Amino acid sequence: MESKTTAHIISHSHWDREWYMSFEKHRYYLVKLMDTLIDLFEKGEDFQSFHLDGQTIILEDYFQIRPDKKEIVKKLIQEKKLHIGPWYVLQDAFLTSSEANVRNMLYGLQDAKEYGAVSKLGYFPDTFGIYGQAPQLLLQADIKTAAFGRGVKPTGFNNMVSDTKTFESPYSELKWESPDGSAVLGVLFANWYSNGNEVPVDKESAKTYWETKLADAKKYSSTPHLLFMNGCDHQPVQVDIGEAIKVAEELFPDTTFIHSSFDEYLEALQHSLPEQLQTVTGELRNQLTDGWSTLVNTASARIYLKQMNQESQTLLEKVAEPLSVFSYLLGHEYPRDYLRYAWKTLMENHPHDSICGCSVDEVHREMVTRFEKVQQTAETIIEEKANEVVSHISTKQSGIDEDMIPVVVFNTSGNTRDVVIEKEVELEKVYFSEMPFSEIPDFLRSKDLPSIHLVDKNGTEHVCKTEDLGIRFGYDLPEDGFRRPYYARTIKLTFLAESLPGYGYKTYYIKLATETNLNEQPSINRGAHEMENEYVHLLIHENGSYTLTDKQTGKTFEGLGIYENSGDIGNEYMFRKPNGEVPLTTKDLKAEIRVVEDHSLRSVIELVHEWEIPKEADEQFQQEKERLVWHKDRQSGRSSENVTIRLTTHIQLDQKAKGPSVKVTIENQAKDHRLRVLFPTNLTTNEHYADSIFEVVKRPNTPEREWENPSFDHHQQAFVSVTDGKHGMTIANKGLHEYEILEEQQTIAVTILRSTSELGDWGLFPTPEAQCIGTYQAEWMVIPHEGTVVESEAFKEAYDFQVPVIAVQTDVHEGILPTEKTFFTWEGKSLAISSIKLAEERDDVIARWFNTSEKETMIIAQPMQGTTSYKSTIIESVKEQYENTQIQEKVKPFEIISLGWQVKE
């Protein structure tokens, strides 16, 4: 092992794209930084290298202002002076979906390829915890090292390092291993990513500086190669770093000082590592800390952003991309450029200070606009691609009359589903070109509404419900002519679509007649307080809680759905309950209960709570914020003045649903508080499961011995689940990323609203809009099941809860496709399908799964058409060719597997 110490000084600036200032204000200083860098590199040899924070979006932001600098920057990147990638943005790892994490890498690497070089380092400098499958993703991208600032050693206020009673690793270098066994070298910024910031040129100051800095770095390093990060958040470039290095060399002749890069540092590090390094497995979530600086409660700051993000991600990866693949297989164009635009716009909201909701209000207002742009783009793609597929379906069948109205129902979740559909159907429309537009509404109203029957291609009638929506305005946009406005007589049609094929569709027909509908079947509703289908029975109590019985196993869960309210004297980063506070609940609050929908397809019962809670925190809270008292040390409480918040809860049970779905509308007038919904399971267990990035992760119910924070909150994606091995309960959600398992009755507590007043961190940044005053909603589903969420495959129901079903009205026409079809068949026990899309740089179908189980399984998969097939990496490079287009492949425990098909010669 080498004995002489080498100080690797890496110049960088951690560039939060938006945070304590708006994006445009931050960009103003980014342009100054980039201009300075270009000048420095052009002047000579004293400035060797700059790490551009691992994110390629910085270049796009810069070139929007300085388009003339693109070739100069490209040359600097190729000369290995500017180091970019591998990410598009520095995303929050836990609050963005599995596919969003992959696309972040795909687009980052794709952008870097344009410039000619990429930094092959898994760079997570300030990520608020990292998912356990990151090493597997990195290795599949041929990235063998990860650098991170959080998750293994504790960091406190202003990111000061403190020692713990036990260490996950004695060194800042460690082996980081995913659940599947994939492992990378991990480099922890043990003294933060600013430990080499503002190096003095003055000799006296430099001597003091380096004596301290060298000792601090040696404390954690396993090799003589010490890493010093010369920069910090939005730090201007230290232009005299070359001179500062010369001074250091004079003062410390036994140490070699170099203006280094990560490429050089990692190369040297690899040759000097000890034979044995500590192995850290799975998630990096600051488990062995006091729990006060995990930043986990960013999962509940501004929940409305998380909900918009979940909807946007789902529309892109679970609807728009599959439909675009189906359409492509039929000869239509794959909208790769538009999907890339939508994904990149979405990922502008994925940096950790953005999606985490821990920025100033201006930042998050702009995020809402971006989400709306993504949703508008995705919805347009979905509409066009669904219609393209429908145009190929032969809806003209024997026994089908020309005046029937076909409705094609698409299921893009990848799993077979039974879904109650609501679809607005235009029974008759009259174009403005056909009569004076002012006369059309009365003309349509003058006609009696016919009796509606729903049949399939065989003429078998299905139960349906209709609601007259009256006269609606609409318009067509022909590809070969001017827009065509019309009025239409419109109904809402509700029916059960059974056994919808995964990645496929089924066609139904509306038949207009004069006779009455099919005889009514028994209602799901059993009275004002009770509902039941073949899977579950619900009994709703006076306080709005409910007892749920799993009819498959006979297991009963009681007291579900109570709301809990606590004061919050924390900030956007961390929840902090006032000392000694006992949370309020709706346990003793009577709810107004009424039935709002009641038939054989669906039952909906409404609960209304008028709940008095404290108006805000007390007067001391403002003083503590102004004094920058750390959230852990605050002593304030809640106001003695109350306000009323109104909770309107709709509990819905559909025919064939495995459990009830719930939507609550919160009319919030209170500040500084957190609202949760509680699900006591009364199941005896020390651990639970949660959906994470390409993993159904198992976590302990209680923290490690170092943990001091009274709260033990966690991140989730689509669900959290508790089981005793025999019975289980899974709570699925839409954009509700924070939960806790309470020791009493092993209760699942899911956060549905959090109101906070400040950003927190290094200064006083008021965020009045983070109080979320106004009307907000939250949605979840309760799924009882046998065994674990994995063994029972209840995870499929939880994932499908997030995926909308698309129904398209069409006409009777000829086509090449049958009335029911799947475009992609697959099967595999314990496998969750993540995506199906076309590859980024070739027209191959790529599908991806992950094994939710600790057991090996088998995947069998085949698209509608294909010429060759192969196993792919996460970045869509070919790994292994197959002989047949139907692939049968073993999938290791917890493996992420991507398969590819060339579908056209």
From TrEMBL:
<dbReference type="InterPro" id="IPR011682">
    <property type="entry name" value="Glyco_hydro_38_C"/>
</dbReference>
<comment type="similarity">
    <text>Belongs to the glycosyl hydrolase 38 family.</text>
</comment>
<keyword id="KW-0378">Hydrolase</keyword>
<dbReference type="InterPro" id="IPR037094">
    <property type="entry name" value="Glyco_hydro_38_cen_sf"/>
</dbReference>
<dbReference type="InterPro" id="IPR000602">
    <property type="entry name" value="Glyco_hydro_38_N"/>
</dbReference>
<dbReference type="Pfam" id="PF17677">
    <property type="entry name" value="Glyco_hydro38C2"/>
</dbReference>
<dbReference type="InterPro" id="IPR041147">
    <property type="entry name" value="GH38_C"/>
</dbReference>
<dbReference type="Pfam" id="PF18438">
    <property type="entry name" value="Glyco_hydro_38"/>
</dbReference>
<dbReference type="InterPro" id="IPR028995">
    <property type="entry name" value="Glyco_hydro_57/38_cen_sf"/>
</dbReference>
<dbReference type="Pfam" id="PF01074">
    <property type="entry name" value="Glyco_hydro_38N"/>
</dbReference>
<keyword id="KW-0326">Glycosidase</keyword>
<feature type="domain" description="Glycoside hydrolase family 38 central">
    <location>
        <begin position="298"/>
        <end position="371"/>
    </location>
</feature>
<dbReference type="Pfam" id="PF07748">
    <property type="entry name" value="Glyco_hydro_38C"/>
</dbReference>
<dbReference type="InterPro" id="IPR011330">
    <property type="entry name" value="Glyco_hydro/deAcase_b/a-brl"/>
</dbReference>
<dbReference type="InterPro" id="IPR015341">
    <property type="entry name" value="Glyco_hydro_38_cen"/>
</dbReference>
<keyword id="KW-0479">Metal-binding</keyword>
<dbReference type="InterPro" id="IPR011013">
    <property type="entry name" value="Gal_mutarotase_sf_dom"/>
</dbReference>
<dbReference type="InterPro" id="IPR027291">
    <property type="entry name" value="Glyco_hydro_38_N_sf"/>
</dbReference>
<dbReference type="InterPro" id="IPR041509">
    <property type="entry name" value="GH38_beta-1"/>
</dbReference>
<dbReference type="Pfam" id="PF09261">
    <property type="entry name" value="Alpha-mann_mid"/>
</dbReference>
<protein>
    <submittedName>
        <fullName>Alpha-mannosidase</fullName>
    </submittedName>
</protein>
